[in-house]
Specification:
mainly beta, globular, 14-stranded mixed β-sheet, about 15% helix, about 210 residues, about 50% strand, two-stranded antiparallel sheet
Length: about 210
């Protein structure tokens, strides 16, 4: 379920959208901006300026088409124009991961400005204020928005790590040799993890 509440100060009033209960939320803002927020995320935007968005925690997949948008996340300011990108704010560590799937992003932190190009991911550590070009953007990071998983010769260990993250569960192997089994394919994301686990167990003739 979702709920709305206001944060007010002398200088600004912000409408905060908070969603919980395991439901993924999609919203559209003026100017051709679409946002998909993961089931445990919290975001907000200025009541009078929808061009300014704030991601408080969780994952948000944002697509812009017609006009620029500014997103604040974890001490960073992200400037986006005609691009598709993922923001992930880890509330526990304060780190921020930014992945670009279409277009180019500009990221600012105080006086520093960086460019993230299509297909790249940038990691920002809030404790050290360091940036790292960590790895290529992974389409499975946006499975909550696209509704599907795509694996190409991935280890079963990697697949389980992705599913454990997305469904907020703990998955462990009792037979270590299974971790290195390889799998390729595209699966539709299901509301019930057991449906995916049954398909995987059928492929490898294993029990879960």
């Amino acid at each position: 379920t979702g709920f709305f509440y206001f944060l007010s100060s002398r200088h600004t009033k912000q409408l905060v959208l908070s969603y919980s209960g395991g439901k993924i939320r999609r919203d559209s803002l003026p100017g051709g901006v679409s946002i998909t927020l993961d089931a445990f995320g919290t975001m907000g935007y200025s009541q009078h300026d929808h061009d300014s968005i704030v991601l408080i925690n969780g994952r948000a997949y944002i697509c812009t088409t017609l006009k620029p948008v500014t997103v604040g996340v974890g001490g960073l300011v992200v400037y986006a124009n005609s691009c598709d990108f993922l923001l992930f704010k880890d509330s526990a560590s304060g780190s921020v991961a930014i992945s670009v799937f279409r277009g180019i992003l500009e990221v600012a932190e105080n006086t520093r400005r960086l460019i993230i190009r299509e297909g790249h991911q940038l990691l920002y550590r809030g404790d050290t204020k360091n940036f790292t070009d960590q790895r290529a953007a992974d389409v499975n990071d946006i499975s909550f928005a696209t509704g599907k998983y795509h694996f190409e010769n991935a280890s079963l260990k990697k697949v389980m790590e992705v599913l454990a993250r997305d469904y907020r569960v703990s998955i462990r192997f009792t037979t270590r040799s299974l971790e290195n089994c390889r799998i390729s394919g595209e699966w539709m994301r299901k509301d019930d993890l057991r449906q995916l686990m049954e398909a995987i167990s059928f492929v490898f003739s294993i029990r879960y």
